[in-house]
Amino acid sequence: MPISFTLNGRSRTADVPSSTLVSDLLRDHMNLTGTHVGCDTSQCGACVVLLDGEAVKSCTLLAPVLAGRSLTTIEGLAKGEKLHPMQEAFHTQHGLQCGFCTPGMVMTAIDLVNHNPVPTEAEIREGLEGNICRCTGYQNIVKAIQAGAAAMAASTTAAAA
Amino acid sequence: MATITGVGAAPLRKEDLRFLTGRGQYVADMKRLDMAIGVFVRSPHAHAVLKGIDASAALQAPGVLAVLTGQDVAADGLGSLPCGWAITGKDGVPMKEPSFPILAQGKVRFVGDMVAFVIAESIEQARAAAELVIVDYEELPAVVGVLEAVSDGAPQLYDDVPGNLCCDWALGDEAATDAAFAKAAHVARLSLINNRLIGNPMEPRAALAEYNPGNGHYTLFTTSQFPHVVRWLMSALVLKIPEQKVRVVAPDVGGGFGVKQFLYGEEAVITWAAKKVGVPVKWVSDRAEGFMSDRQGRDHVTEAELALDENGKFLGFRVHTLANMGGYLSTFGPNIPTNLYAPLLGGVYTTPAIYCNVKVVFTNTVPVDAYRGAGRPEATFVVERIVDVAAADMGIDRVELRRRNMIPKEAYPYQTPVLVEYDSGDPVGCLDRAETVADVAGFASRKAASRAAGRFRGLGYSTYVEACGLAPSRFAGRLGARGGLYESATLRVHPTGQVTVLIGTHNHGQGHETTFAQIVSERLGIPFENVDIVFGDTDKVQFGMGTYGSRSLVVGGSALNKASDKVIAKGRKIAAHLLEAGEQDIEFEAGVFSVAGTDRTKSFVEIALAAYVPHNYPLEVLEPGLEEQAYYDPINFTYPGGAHICEVEIDPDTGVVRIERYTGVDDVGTVINPMIVEGQLHGGIVQGIGQALCEAAIYDDQSGQLLSGSFMDYCMPRADMSPHMDVSTHSTPCTHTPLGVKGCGEVGTIGSPAAVINAVVDALSHLGVTHVDMPATPNRIWRVIQNATLPRALAAE
């Protein structure tokens, strides 16, 4: 069935069976492989994307849900060569190693900061409950989200000024 | 002058951008327009006779291209998976080495053992057809634990491996150790298990293979830490196809931790299948499949005894271990609980006599092999636990007991009684610094505050050493290695003076693209931005043993350093010609060749250009071009180590252990990029905390089913249970690696489990608790508290 939605700011239509998972739609039909699948029980969070700005696990979402809505993936965050402040923060704080969990971490982090612009360390750790990283021990991810939150606030302020 | 970003600088990582923007290229991301999808049929039984396979219904299912079984493997005369280490037991008895077929032959030996490979046009069709493969199993009793496996009457995995005993192995002087015990004032004793772990890199394993009938070339894209070794073993020993016609590519790989450093049956089957079906074939493991097929780690049962004199000096150490190999020998399997375990039992102490016996045992479980640390965390856990037990027994402070027995800095190089000679180290210095950083002085008041709040607080130490940088080939060969353990690097200077490095290690999170570029920037005096690192493709990179055992910087970095020497040496010849000076008068520093004592110079870029435009060039004696290759075989292992201090608080009502402080002071030798080293330490420590507090692979002891087979049952460390860590380095440069580096990939995982458990035991010591097995889950700790030998009311005094 044809499903029309906005993907990273572009209008798209996908004709896929209604049983298609959003993660598969992105990876297999839209050629956007930045959204990763690291488990089969919705535990790892590597597949997190933003649906109308809210973090969701795309491995647990069926494609028809997208109809008329707006989806943002890791590929859609940067503006040209300018990284989103949260991407930049993961870079400057060494918040990634192998990179596999990173897209899901960045998307979750953006959602977390959207809901809580100045999160404490404990709130960040709590907020990452649905994302597993095996490389970093989380410390630099937490640091990155703190830095990313500050940068997002600054860029909002700058935009408003 | 060029801007050098060299040793000790912390540039941000070159590799980040592609991962942050979703442009990484992992195997699961790869597609071919005409590709088919493969699914493995795996044994649902831990132990069974394979009486027959009926694939007729599956073959008729929609979209199915082929169903391959062990019969096809036999018909094509394919080989089995080789074991890379042939260890020798006591009295010179070689290990038992049963065949590990790529698809089961005659029997299955663990849940997940591969029985058939179904290839279809889509994943849905392949999965549906796999359900139609009818396998006739005659179930046999299974055995999953090592103690049961060596008992009389245990189910036998192999007809020709009596008692399921692969090898009865030993290291050390048994008589000298017995003599030490005979004169001991005290003997501390400890029985422990080292829990089985599942590595779970976040990227599941995957492979894509294609065959070109036009030239007979195979290409395998695979999630591997060592593509050249996969090519070598798979072509020569399994598929028996020409090595030069096989290309193995390991592109971006989403974490390894050892899990991806073996030749897997899946890799061989899919490569073979691609030719058989005539189209590219792709397989992506799902997580459940990974749990039942990724090689697992640890799984020891150990009895240890430490002999001490009346002052607490260690006299002798005796260790008996049963190590689980699972159902078959994996690539490094038997090496891990033997050669990578017993030589570390000296720890950072002067124990003069050590004897270790290891029984390597088959069971009906997933094969066990290297997992981050591999043997060394197990050794460290035994040593650091028994030191605490001895201290408690003798009423000596555990830090004081450690200090009395530590190897002093000035005693290095230090030959232990168990093969290894530590080249350098300063365990006392690491401990001193860790005690300050951890504010041990303030612990008593923090403990009092916890007690006032009804909680138990404990402090745990782990002062440890490891051996890494695997390894001197000659030494490894004596221990049973069937391959060498050097590394190679090619330094290709382009006409512009920009550089491509082709290196045989594999980067899957360690930051090699950054660290190795720093080495080249430092050595050649060129901008860091002008250096790119290529790895993971056997068609591009000459050769390599890959990345594992904290070897990439230690061995690969040394090869790169050596290739840099060669480039500089050739550059000096070119400069001598251009500057009309003797070669011995040419100096090279910070990217500039100069005639000593003059202002006559040539930049590195000018020399590179001259090498490729050899108009004014000594062609009679020197070839054009500027590209050098080096192979480096290590002189010794390297011995990173350090002191970790963990502080926990336990809620007695729930049994929850919270890590309140974690301090690591590690000696990793010279630090190239402190940001990356710190990240490696963080990740390693949390993996060790995972072993200590939550991770465990649990099999049903009757059926052999893996009960912890998903992220809902196998507890991975999450952000909210991981502590904030204070890590720093206290380095003594390695004396035999050219850059002074020791390696840092595994130290965290090796040092931390003992620190955590020692803290847990300390927190519970007032209840009479002397040991807690890992993982210290809330359930286990709550039960320990409930069953404590001292009543709680009394203990709370």
TrEMBL record, chain A:
Top-level taxon in the UniProt lineage: Bacteria
UniProt KW Lyase keyword: no
InterPro entries: 2Fe-2S-bd, 2Fe-2S-bd_dom_sf, 2Fe-2S_ferredoxin-like_sf, 2Fe-2S_ferredoxin-type, Beta-grasp_dom_sf, Diverse_Oxidoreductases
2Fe-2S ferredoxin-type domain boundaries: 1-77
Entry's Gene Ontology molecular function annotations: 2 iron, 2 sulfur cluster binding; metal ion binding; oxidoreductase activity
Pfam family, one: Fer2
Keyword Metal-binding: yes
Keywords, comma-separated and alphabetical: 2Fe-2S, Iron, Iron-sulfur, Metal-binding, Oxidoreductase
Descriptive protein name: (2Fe-2S)-binding protein
Species of origin: Lichenifustis flavocetrariae
Lineage summary: Bacteria, Pseudomonadati, Pseudomonadota, Alphaproteobacteria, Hyphomicrobiales
From TrEMBL, chain B:
GO molecular function annotations of the record: iron ion binding; oxidoreductase activity
Domain Aldehyde oxidase/xanthine dehydrogenase a/b hammerhead: 21-141
Keywords, alphabetical: Molybdenum, Oxidoreductase
One Pfam family here: MoCoBD_2
InterPro entries noted in UniProt: Ald_Oxase/Xan_DH_a/b, Ald_Oxase/Xan_DH_a/b_sf, Ald_Oxase/xanthine_DH-like, AldOxase/xan_DH_MoCoBD1, AldOxase/xan_DH_MoCoBD2, AldOxase/xan_DH_Mopterin-bd_sf
Protein name, UniProt field: Xanthine dehydrogenase family protein molybdopterin-binding subunit
